[in-house]
Each structure stands twice: as C-alpha cells, then as structure tokens.
C-alpha cells in the first residue's frame, strides 16, 4: 500500500505544483538579471525606474494575458496588435473633449475588441481553418479597418479624462500599474478558480478527451478568443490614452512580444499548460532587459543581439529544471 | 528618489553633459546619418550621448523619454515617431524641466526647440519638379511609406497640394510600398501591367522606393519614358541620379540636422541662448547640381 | 421474447460511413436494464463506431437511438451524458496535465456551469473516496501524465461510474489491466448490475465475456449478426459468428529448442522503478514476463530498448557487452520493441499503413536515400495480408483504423525490421481472437527462425500458452524464473504477489 | 482468404492520396480567382503578368518551402526574415564589381544561412526551449547582426553578374522562375521520395513513436532547420540581387508570409502533414491576390481588408472538403 503510493510522484496537494515549478526558475533568472543591472548601473534600482518598467510592461502584459488564454486552449491569436489599433482609433473617435463622458470611449472601444475577438472565435469554431490563418487574416483586416476608420490619420485632441486612464497617477502610482495588477488577479482567478478556466486547460491538453467529457469545444474557444479581444481592446485604449492619440498603425508587431512573454513564462505552444504568473514574469523579463539595455546605453544594433541571447538563455535555464524531472 | 539625486550629484562632478537621444528608427539610413552627425558633434563638444532606438513605435518613444527623465539627463533630443503620439513625451520632459529638442520632424506639443525641416515641403519640391518636367500635364503614380506614419501623411499632403495646382496632372494610382525597395519594385511591376504606357511619372515618398520603381521600369524598358522622383538623397539615390536613372531626389541635410540638434541641446542645457526653431531647407537634387551633394 | 418496455436503450437501423467506407450498416441493438450486454466482433467490425454514435461523439447517417423513450439520435455528448449514459473509451481520453481528480470530474465540475467557482479540494476528496471504494490505490492529486497505462485505465473506469449513469459503455476496459484489476472491475460491474445499471461491454478476451455477459450481440463487417443470451453461446459458435470461419487452435505447438544465448541482462536497476533484474534469453526462445500492474515490466523493457535507459546494470548481446542509450542503439543491436502504449510509442497517426509499417526499416527500401516506392509498397502489402490488417488501402492513414488494426500495424512494423531480439509488451492488446491466433502463429514463426523473444503480458493464458520460461516481477523485483513445466496460474500469482 | 484480400485495395502510387486531396480544392480556388481576375481586367491574363506574379512569388515560396520542412516536423522558424537580411548583407559585401567571382558571394551567403539554420537546429535539439522562442530570439539576433555588419546602411554597388542571378532572364524566362521551379522539384523530392523526408513526417506526426522506431530526432531536426536556413539564404541572395542592394532591414515580416503560405497550403501547424505543392499554391494564392488588387487599383486600406478576407475564405473552402471526410 504505502509502497505503491511512493511510485506516483508529482502530487501537488499543498506543495509546489510541478506545472508551476517553472516559474520559480524564471523568477530567479529575473531577480538575477535585476541584481546584475543594479550593480552595473545606479540608475536601475530606483523606485522611479522600477515603476517605469512596470508601466512599460503593462500593455504587453495585458495582451500576453489574453493570448495566454488562447494558447492554453491550443490556439493562437496574431490579430491582437491590430485589435489594439482598431480599438484605439474607435475609442479616440469618441474621446474628444466635451463630447461624451469618458465611459463612452472606453465602452465602445471594449465592445469593438470583444466583437473582434468573438469574430475570431466564430471563424475558428465554425470552420476548420487553423487559428494561425484566421487571426493572420483578421490581423490584416484589422489593420485595414483601423486605417479606413481613421482615414489613415492619427485621431488626436482627446479629453483630459480620457488621457488620464492610461497616463495618470493615483496616489503616486501610475494607473497602468493599478490596472495591470487588477487584471493579473482577474485573469489568474479565471484560469485557476473557475470552471471555464479548467475547461481551457482540458481543451488544450486533449481536445478529444474534453469533447468526450461533454465539454463544448466551441463555447470554450469562443470565450477565449473574445476574452483575448477584450484584453487587447483594454491594451488599445490604455495605449491610446497614454500617447494621447489613436494611431491606426499602433500595435504593429505587439503580437509577437505578447506571445513571447506567454511562452517564456512557460505556456506550452501545444496547449494545455501555462499560468498568468509565468506570463507576467515573461513580460517583466522582456521589459527589464529592454530597460536595462537602454540604461547601459548599449548601441541599438547590439541591443537586439543581446536581447535575443538573454531571452533564449533565460528559457534555457528555465528548461533545465524540466530535464531533471524527466 | 532622494538618494538618486545625491548619486547624480556625485556623477555630475565630471561636469560632462548627458544628452538622451531617442531616434525614430536606426534601420533607416537617413536617420542613421542624422545620428552619426550627432555623435560626431557630441564628441567634439565633449557631450555624453545615450542613444535609444524607438523602432518606429511612439509608445516606445514615450517610454524612452520617461526613462531619460528618471535618469535625469541634462537634455533630450527626440526624433519623433509621430506628430501626436510622441507629444506626451514632450509634455513630460517639459514638466520635468529638462529641455527637449525635436529633430527632423515635429510634434504637436511645442518642444523647447526644433531643428529640422518640414516634411510637407520636401514632397512639394518633388512634386513640383514632376509637374514642371511634364509641363503640368500627365499621369502620376505615388508610392506611400507605411500608411498612417507621420512622414507618410506629410509627404502625401505636400504632394497633393501641388497636384491641386495642376488640374491636368492626374494621380492615377497610389499605394503603399512600405518604405521598402523590394515591395516598391513589385508594386511598380504590377502598375506597369495595369497602366503600361500611361504612366508619365512616379513620385516615391523615399529613395528606397524610388530605386525599386527605377529597377522595375528599367527591367520593363520603360525608364526613358517615365520620370521618377523621390526624397532623402541617400548615397544610392545620388548614385542613381548620377546614372540618370533617378531623375531627382530631395536632399535633407542630415549632417546639419544632427549637429544643430546637439548644439541647441547643449545651449539649452547650459541655460544659454538658443534658437527656438532652426529650419534647414530642403534642396532638389538633379543631375545638374549633383556634384555638391556627392562626397 | 421481451416487451419493448424492458429496453432502456434501443438502436434501430443505424448506418455510418466514413469517406465511402461503410463502418456500420443498418445495425440494431437493444439493451435491458441491469444487464451486461457484450458486443462482439472482429477488429474493425464497427463496435467502437457504434458506441461513439450512442454517446453522441459521432452523428449517424441514418437510423435512430432512443434512451428511456427519448430520442438521442442527434444529441450532443453533453446531453447524452446528462441523461445517464457514460462511456469508457477504447482510446483513453485523458488530459495529461490535469490531476486524477480533475480528470474524473471533467465536464461535471459545479454541474458544468461555465462561470462558477471550482472547488478542487472537494473534487480531490470525492475522487479519493471513489478510488478507495473501488479498491484502487492511486493518488487523486497526482497529475495524470505520471500514471501508467493501467492506472489511467482505472481512472477512466472511475470517471465513467462516478456519473451515476444508467447505461455504461465499456469499450475494452481491461485491455491494459492485469487479472487483479480485472477482478476489481468485475466486482464493480456486479454492484452496478444490482443497482439496475446496464453495461455494454466490449472485449476481445473470451473468458471475460463468458464470465460476466448476460446477453451477447455480434457484429461482423459493420453488419448486425445476432443477439442472444450468453448461455446460448459457446466459445466456438461465438467465434464462428464473429469471424465467419472456425479457429481451432489458439496457441500453436512449437518444436524448436532454444539455441545459443542472445541477450543477457545483469543487475539492471532504476531507482524507484526496478532493481537487480538479471536474466538471459536464448535463440528461438520465448521468455515471458509476468507481474501485476505497476510491477515494472514495462520499465524493464523500455530500459533494455533505450527509451528510458537504466541507472546501472549491464546488457550483453551474444556475449558482448553493449551500451544502449537510445532506441536507435537497440535497433542497431537487432532489438525490436512493441510498446504497450501504441498511441504514444506505436504509430504515426497521419502516415499511411504502408509508411508506418516500413518506418523502422526504411533504409532497407531505399537507394541512396531515395525510397524505392515499388519495393516498399510490395513489402507493406505482404505484411498487411499476413496480419490481415483491415484498411481501405495501404494508403489509409493509421489514425483512421480501428484500435486492433492499429496494433497490428505496430507489430508489422517491428516484424519487418527483422530483429534478432524482440520485446513484445502486451502485443495482443485489443486484438480480436482470430487475429490473435495469427499473431501467435507469427511469433512462433519468428521463434522458429531463431529470434529471441521477450513476451510481456497481463493475460496469463497467453503467457502460459506461449512461453518457454516465465520471469516473474513483483514491485520492481525479480521473484522467480519458472520453466514452462513449473509455471501455472497459481505459481505465477504466488510469485507476483511476493514482496 | 479472398475476402481478406479485397480489403487491401492495391498500393497508393498512381492514385490520389487522401492526404494530398486538399490541394486540389486550393487549386480550384486559385483558378477561380484567376478566372475572376481575368474577366475583370484584361491585363491580368497576359504571359507577361503571369510571369511577373511568379517572379514576385518566388522569394516567398522559397522561404515557405524551407519553413514547410520545419513545420512538418512540428517546429517553427521565425528567423527566416532575419536570415534573408543577414545573408543578403553578407553576400552583397562580397559582390562589388571587380572583387570576387560571383560564386563567392553566393557561396558565402549560402554558408551564412546554413550556419544560421544549423545554430537554430542546435539550440532546438540541445535545449528544451520551444522553437518559437529559439527562432524569435535568433530573429532578433539576426536583425541585429545584419545591422551591425552593414552599419545600418544598404550595401550597394554590386556587380552585374551578381545582379543577374535574381534579376536576369534566360531565354526570356526570369531566372527567379527557373530557380523556383528547380527548388520546388528538389524540395518535393526530398519530402516525398527520400528517407529523411519520411522521417520529417514521422517526427512531426508522433515524436515519441518516431524515436521508438529508431529515428534520431536531433539529426532530423538539425537537417530541417539547416535546410530552412539554406533556403532562406537563397531567398536572401536572390532578393539582394533583384533589388541590387543588400538591405539590413530586408525580409522583415517575411516569416509570417512564408508561414501563411505553408499553412494555407495545408501544412498542419501541429506537424506531421503538409506538401510542397500545397505550399506553392499557398504562395501563389497570396501573390495572385496581391497582384490582382494592385491591377484593380484597390485603395491600400481596402487592399488589406480584402486580402485578409480572401485568404480566410480560400482556406474555409479548402477545409470544407475535410469536413465531409469526418
Ligand atoms: N475516422 C475514420 N475515418 C475512416 N474510417 C474510419 C474512421 N473511424 C473508423 N473507421 C473505420 O470504421 C471501421 C470500424 O471501426 P471501429 O473502430 O468501430 O472497429 P472496432 O469494432 O471497434 O474494432 P476494434 O476491435 O479493433 O477496436 C474500421 O474499418 C475503421 O477503419
Ligand atoms: N514518468 C513517471 N513518473 C512517475 N511514475 C511513473 C512514471 N512512469 C511510470 N511510473 C510508475 O512506475 C510504475 C511501473 O510502471 P510500469 O509501466 O513499468 O509497470 P508494468 O509492470 O509494466 O505494469 P503495467 O504496464 O501493467 O502498468 C507504475 O506504477 C507507474 O505508475
Ligand atoms: Mg474498437
Ligand atoms: Mg506494462
């Protein structure tokens, strides 16, 4: 009896879950990089700079949270960068001073993003087109829409209250940081504590098994893409507010950064595994390196080389742990 | 933050001025040239430069300026990505009482000083040249940069202003070549298919695209019949003008923009008098006046 | 015979085709409350397809399904399960990253309401109780991916019975189980029967059918043959009805005498899995390996094959010490391995039957790196015919084959690589009785040509019928090596339970 | 006995393979679009225009061939766009008139690409870092390298013989078309007729089973990434030759187009399935649409929208066939 139970390792009751253990290594890597930077440049380890890093990371992190949901179910969303642009332009159009109360641009922007995401989900679930192609298609479509809606010009002259959302401070803390923390908690709870979160893991871990257990794949996927669209919209609104203008070409390439953050954070490209904490750490890692390289005044060409090496290196270290576990 | 102030106090014992520079894109040759001029001038003046590349992202640029502010640099030079979107950076720098100098292009919020030229003007010059060459009559196609970017918007604006003055000059097609030579070449090939002999002139919003158009036209044996004009006067562009394949380009003085920007930044940082606006004029480059631009 | 009201589940005129292949043709099935209804047929007869139609995973081309008077013909799985039908799938349907408890209650947490809170502690507790009641020793909080195939199978059983279903479909639930767990399952089944639950039971193990079935329905080539009480069948009539011909001897008689020593295993150890395993295998000999679930048989086999190399110990092939760190080393030394987990280690789902069969010996059919299509195709066709693999053509992707036929493809692949040592881990798992006889014949042919064979099986009759000697493992230790004369069900069980 | 033999209906050569049936639908879609364009604009269906389309498609197609190999094994390569830039810059540096014979820039460029690809393969096989992250990292590194090598400036003034490779014509046929055809055949043969090609499918279809069949996973992956690097180098050299200059920022975003071509062509993102014919059709589809939209003079904003819709639509049609198969 007791002998058998020793054969089954990897219990997670109360202890560290195997699935989550990865993030601790990543955390150590992140802390190590921070210490190294703090020792190299006195400008790094200041409250102000750390706050700047988190602020800078927040938009990527929000996008990465959304895409983490999608990747966990075994999908992918390349359209988030375009959603940022579309929702930014849409929100900005309703955010001119003395027109609507600030809730209107926020609401309309979010709605646009949710609809965009729902459209992705609809095509993914109603057809057999791979999510990569669906969202690559909607990425192109979205970019076109943003340009059409804005007639190719930035939408500016936004109200102060709108510009406050992503650019203001509350008790000295940038709003972006507060929003990031709130949504980090919300996304973690959705993923870990709710039935739908469990279904995301199940669908990504084994679609057939999920189906055989009576889980409606299309519902789960619809929710996931819609959620991702919503978070991208939030990112788009915050970005617009932060740069005080709705740019039709904003967000280009953001999808790769967000996906990178999720995967660096341990989300499996095959689906079925991933955590919001990991994703947040992934986003912070990218942010810290980028900030550090700027502080160290590394020439921009070399920055790219160093950035690439550190990211690969961090994930190599992170993956060593898995090797030991067999 | 108090401790960091004292640290800075220690640092500034060397009295070397620190200028933070955020450039639009270090993958763009013209921008690299501006930056090189800055580096040269800074070395001569004993100024320390911290250069960062915004990679065409206004958000990134705003963040970089925030970072400069946190580092308490003595002055900031910004080569704005966007007119509007880069403005918060200016606001923030001004609020932190750090002089900020815009180089090459503008933001809607007025900075401490501006060094550069008006992009709209460059397109006016280019299009005017085309209009004159064609005697105010003919079919023109235009190649845009990345849609929605400040330079694209302004160059389109300038071109359209001139087109309005010449009702017989028709813009029969316009499309983005994304500032890229290969994309522009494919675009030109496709246009040759659809318009064949109808095209009289090509206006490309930068030299890279202009050279792509030249290549496609040459391959199709049409170069003799079509005028190509672009902007920037990069070395390749000048060479093409020399060969006669590119009819004209518009020279933007990178060297002056760069060195004047440093000069202004240093003056502003030291509290000396400086010019609020240093406008460096564009110049049309054709075979006739080429010699003075070739180094 | 019986009035219609007795039937809890009725299927009429069910037809299903896949890309032109008729899997089921006008099939009927009537299930009574509280009975164990065996569904019999050869590999590819359409049993699993019929069950998938019942549970709502597939939609029929025509026909109808009614359950307790309601029509379920086009219902979604979720609805079918809610109404009281659950299913143990032939191909295990587990989510590896989730825990045992999470798998058991998947789809039914908080009644499956998408936007409600999870209570994992509660799920784990309930799963623990359930597993304990079943007499299964598996931690409810361990991740599914760390379980052996047999353990996963037990979890699947737990999942199906925890649904309070009134009909439970069991599609080859025992294919990965050894006798002890089979007994556990049968105990559960009789409890369920008491409660009036009907069981649709599919298995290729004849003894099981005659032990528990009340009624038997036979399918052949997608067609309904007959339904009769089990008592009216004997093994011969049943097999004849399934196969369409007679099968006289299951285990062929072999006259070969073992030759020279081929493989020697010395003090093979892997921490926590097995220790001190030493044995020899000779040319033309079949060494059986017996043991209970989790005894470490598979672990020993995959250590020899280099899939999961041992921590210490030595391997000798024909007297020479060899080191095997990866399967290609083993293959290089002439070892072939048929894994118990065919889905994971056995075949490439997208590739065709032909491509799978030749995969391990492809260079043999290539010149200068280029595959010679003709010789490859011919070889594959011969193997398909030899093993009676049922496929629309050798170009059919293996993922579309029935479970048993997939197993045959895997065996064919290893046979083709003509190994001098072959390790068969549960080789007849899910294979019908006719094909089993064929496979035994093939194993014997191999033996006669001097191949050394290691046969791991949870079916004692198979081990006893085929082996020259039997090695018994218990909890990772070697407890006996029995000669064919000494070996009986009793002695093997005795040593298998030894600590 | 005779009953059994009817079950095995012959071999599969000569007939249409189930796996390949998909490409016929795509072919029909492509032909339909071509007919529609030919009817809308007389300029579409001319020998010259068709030749231009194929020329324009060729560089994307070569990249797509390489990435098809990689995706079939279950991997991904995001670095190909950067390889185009690096190899282009490297080749151009050796291609100035009156320096080296034209074989030198070609050889050095190819070598650089093969090494780059081998490095990707090395990291993918020696570490457990997901290919997405490895090649995202090397994509950044590669871009940095191209900028460092060229100091951020185009490398121009190339010899006529070098410029001929990608810009010349042989008997009236553009060299690019000839090279495309040659490499299409070569890649098809590798994938379909050779042992290594079969192993690629096996590794992508079921890595564990491939390993258990004695296939050395790391060897197959090394070959695949190296091959992909080599094809990207070829694309880089041809692009450089075509535009007569080595651009450090060339090839940005090419990876998405190439991956799109492969997936539109039926390559499974999960690995294990795909054909070069499909990939070629995918690339042609993108090329034809893009050419058609230019010919029809569709405004650039709307071009993007239409492009996205047509690509999704084409793949929807293509996937309908699979649905019938169950
Ligand atoms: N998705 C599919 N596509 C094509 N053919 C299929 C598919 N699924 C099943 N088949 C075919 O349907 C037939 C019946 O298969 P099924 O799995 O029902 O057999 P089975 O009776 O369960 O066999 P076994 O005892 O081997 O499990 C087989 O010939 C199989 O090849
Ligand atoms: N990756 C793993 N992590 C933890 N435990 C494992 C792992 N793989 C196998 N085990 C455990 O090791 C034990 C030995 O498994 P093995 O498969 O060798 O047993 P076996 O004798 O072949 O029995 P059977 O195949 O009938 O289950 C099992 O209890 C299994 O749960
Ligand atoms: Mg079956
Ligand atoms: Mg076993």
TrEMBL record, chains A, D:
GO terms for molecular function: transmembrane transporter activity. It comes from the Bacteria. The keyword DNA-binding does not apply. This is Ribose ABC transporter permease. The chain crosses the membrane at residues 21-38, 50-72, 78-95, 102-123, 129-149, 170-191, 222-239, 259-289, 301-320. It is a multi-pass membrane protein. GO terms for cellular component: plasma membrane. CDD domains: TM_PBP1_transp_AraH_like. InterPro entries: ABC_transp_permease. It is found in: Cell membrane. It comes from Spirosoma telluris. Keywords: Cell inner membrane, Cell membrane, Membrane, Transmembrane, Transmembrane helix, Transport.
From TrEMBL, chain C:
It holds the Pfam family ABC_tran. One of its GO terms (biological process) is monosaccharide transmembrane transport. One of its GO terms (cellular component) is plasma membrane. It is a peripheral membrane protein. Coiled coil: none annotated. It comes from Spirosoma telluris. GO terms for molecular function: ATP binding; ATP hydrolysis activity. Keywords: ATP-binding, Cell membrane, Membrane, Nucleotide-binding, Repeat, Sugar transport, Translocase, Transport. This is D-xylose ABC transporter ATP-binding protein. It comes from the Bacteria. InterPro entries: AAA+_ATPase, ABC_carbohydrate_import_ATPase, ABC_transporter-like_ATP-bd, ABC_transporter-like_CS, P-loop_NTPase. Its main location: membrane. SUPFAM superfamilies: P-loop containing nucleoside triphosphate hydrolases. It is found in: Cell inner membrane; Cell membrane. Residues 9-246, 257-499 form the ABC transporter domain.
């Amino acid at each position: 009896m007791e002998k058998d139970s020793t054969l089954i390792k990897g219990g997670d009751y109360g202890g560290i879950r195997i699935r989550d253990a990865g993030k601790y290594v990543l955390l150590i890597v992140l802390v190590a990089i921070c210490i190294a930077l703090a020792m190299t440049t006195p400008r790094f380890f200041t409250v102000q700079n750390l706050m700047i890093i988190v602020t800078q990371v927040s938009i990527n992190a929000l996008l990465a949270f959304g895409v983490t949901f999608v990747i966990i179910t075994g999908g992918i969303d390349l359209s988030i960068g375009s959603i940022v642009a579309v929702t930014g332009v849409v929100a900005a159009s309703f955010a001119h001073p003395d027109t609507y109360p600030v809730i209107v641009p926020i609401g309309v922007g979010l709605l646009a993003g949710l609809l965009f995401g729902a459209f992705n989900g609809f095509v993914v679930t109603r057809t057999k087109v791979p999510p990569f192609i669906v969202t690559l298609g909607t990425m192109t479509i979205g970019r076109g829409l943003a340009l059409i809606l804005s007639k190719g010009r930035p939408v500016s002259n936004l109200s102060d209250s709108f510009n406050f959302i992503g650019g203001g401070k509350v008790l000295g803390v940038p709003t972006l940081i507060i929003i990031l923390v709130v949504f980090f908690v919300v996304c973690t709870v959705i993923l870990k504590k709710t039935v739908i979160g469990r279904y995301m893991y199940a669908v990504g871990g084994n679609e057939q098994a999920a189906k055989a257990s009576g889980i409606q794949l299309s519902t789960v996927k619809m929710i996931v893409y819609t959620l991702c669209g919503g978070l991208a919209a939030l990112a788009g609104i915050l970005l617009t507010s932060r740069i005080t203008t709705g740019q039709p070409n904003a967000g280009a390439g953001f999808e790769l950064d967000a996906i990178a953050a999720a995967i660096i954070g341990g989300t499996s490209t095959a689906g079925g595994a991933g955590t919001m904490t990991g994703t947040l750490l992934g986003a912070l890692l990218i942010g810290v390196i980028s900030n550090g390289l700027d502080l160290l005044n590394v020439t921009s060409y070399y920055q790219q080389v160093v950035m690439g090496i550190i990211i690969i290196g961090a994930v190599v270290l992170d993956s060593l742990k898995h090797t030991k576990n067999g | 933050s108090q401790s960091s102030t004292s640290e800075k106090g220690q640092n500034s014992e060397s009295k070397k001025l620190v200028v933070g520079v955020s450039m639009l894109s270090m993958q763009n040759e013209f921008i690299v040239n501006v930056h090189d001029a800055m580096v040269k001038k800074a070395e001569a003046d004993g100024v320390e430069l911290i250069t960062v590349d915004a990679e065409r992202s206004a958000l990134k640029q705003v963040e970089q300026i925030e970072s400069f502010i946190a580092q308490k640099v003595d002055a900031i030079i910004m080569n704005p990505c966007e007119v509007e979107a880069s403005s918060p950076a200016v606001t923030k720098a001004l609020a932190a009482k750090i002089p900020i100098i815009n180089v090459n292009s503008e933001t809607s919020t007025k900075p401490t000083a501006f060094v550069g030229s008006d992009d709209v003007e460059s397109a006016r010059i280019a299009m005017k040249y085309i209009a004159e060459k064609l005697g105010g009559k003919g079919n023109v196609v235009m190649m845009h940069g990345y849609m929605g970017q400040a330079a694209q918007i302004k160059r389109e604006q300038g071109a359209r202003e001139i087109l309005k003055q010449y009702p017989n000059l028709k813009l029969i097609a316009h499309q983005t070549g994304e500032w890229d030579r290969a994309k522009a070449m494919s675009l030109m090939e496709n246009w040759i298919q659809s318009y064949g002999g109808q095209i009289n002139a090509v206006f490309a919003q930068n030299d890279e695209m202009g050279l792509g158009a030249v290549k496609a036209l040459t391959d199709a044996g049409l170069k003799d019949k079509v005028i190509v004009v672009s902007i920037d006067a990069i070395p390749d562009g000048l060479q093409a003008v020399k060969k006669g394949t590119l009819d004209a380009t518009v020279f933007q003085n990178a060297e002056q923009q760069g060195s004047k920007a440093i000069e202004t930044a240093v003056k502003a940082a030291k509290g000396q008098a400086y010019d609020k606006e240093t406008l460096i004029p564009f110049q049309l480059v054709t075979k006739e006046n080429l010699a003075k631009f070739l180094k | 015979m019986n009035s219609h009201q007795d039937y809890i589940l009725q299927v009429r005129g069910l037809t299903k085709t896949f890309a032109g292949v008729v899997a089921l043709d006008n099939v009927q099935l009537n299930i009574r409350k509280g009975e164990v209804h065996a569904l019999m047929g050869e590999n590819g007869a359409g049993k699993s397809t019929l069950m998938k139609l019942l549970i709502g995973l597939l939609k029929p081309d025509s026909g109808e399904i009614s359950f307790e008077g309601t029509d379920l013909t086009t219902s979604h799985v979720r609805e079918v399960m809610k109404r009281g039908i659950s299913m143990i799938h032939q191909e295990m349907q587990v989510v590896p990253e989730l825990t045992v408890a999470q798998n058991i209650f998947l789809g039914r947490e908080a009644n499956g309401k998408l936007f409600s809170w999870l209570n994992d502690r509660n799920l784990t507790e309930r799963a623990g109780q359930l597993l304990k009641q079943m007499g299964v020793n598996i931690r409810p909080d361990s991740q599914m991916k760390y379980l052996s195939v047999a353990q996963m199978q037990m979890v699947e059983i737990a999942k199906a019975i925890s649904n309070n279903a009134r009909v439970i479909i069991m599609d080859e639930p025992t294919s990965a189980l050894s006798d002890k767990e089979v007994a556990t399952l049968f105990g559960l089944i009789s409890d369920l029967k008491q409660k009036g639950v009907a069981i649709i039971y599919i298995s290729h193990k004849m003894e099981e059918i005659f032990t528990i079935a009340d009624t038997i329905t036979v399918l052949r080539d997608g067609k309904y043959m007959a339904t009769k009480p089990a008592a009216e069948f004997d093994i011969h009539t049943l097999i004849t009805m399934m196969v369409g011909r007679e099968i006289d001897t299951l285990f062929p008689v072999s006259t070969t005498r073992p030759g020279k020593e081929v493989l020697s295993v010395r003090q093979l150890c892997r921490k926590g899995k097995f220790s001190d395993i030493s044995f020899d295998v000779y040319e033309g000999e079949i060494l059986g390996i017996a043991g209970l679930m989790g005894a470490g048989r598979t672990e020993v086999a995959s250590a020899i094959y280099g899939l999961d190399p041992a921590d210490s110990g030595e391997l000798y092939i024909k007297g020479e010490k060899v080191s095997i760190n990866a399967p290609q080393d083993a293959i290089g030394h002439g070892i072939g391995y048929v894994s118990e987990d065919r889905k994971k280690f056995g075949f490439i789902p997208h590739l065709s039957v032909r491509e799978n069969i030749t995969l391990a010996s492809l260079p043999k059919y290539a010149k200068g790196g280029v595959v010679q299509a003709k010789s490859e195709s011919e070889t594959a066709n011969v193997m398909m015919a030899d093993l009676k693999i049922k496929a629309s053509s050798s170009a059919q992707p293996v993922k579309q084959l029935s479970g048993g036929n997939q197993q045959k493809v895997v065996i064919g692949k290893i046979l083709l690589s003509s190994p001098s040592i072959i390790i068969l881990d549960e080789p007849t798992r899910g294979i019908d009785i006719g094909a089993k006889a064929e496979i035994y014949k093939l194993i014997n042919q191999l033996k006669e040509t001097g191949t050394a064979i290691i046969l791991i099986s949870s079916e004692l009759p198979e081990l006893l019928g085929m082996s020259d000697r039997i090695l018994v493992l218990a909890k990772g230790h070697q407890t006996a090596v029995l000669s064919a004369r000494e070996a009986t069900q009793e002695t093997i069980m005795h040593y298998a339970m030894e600590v």
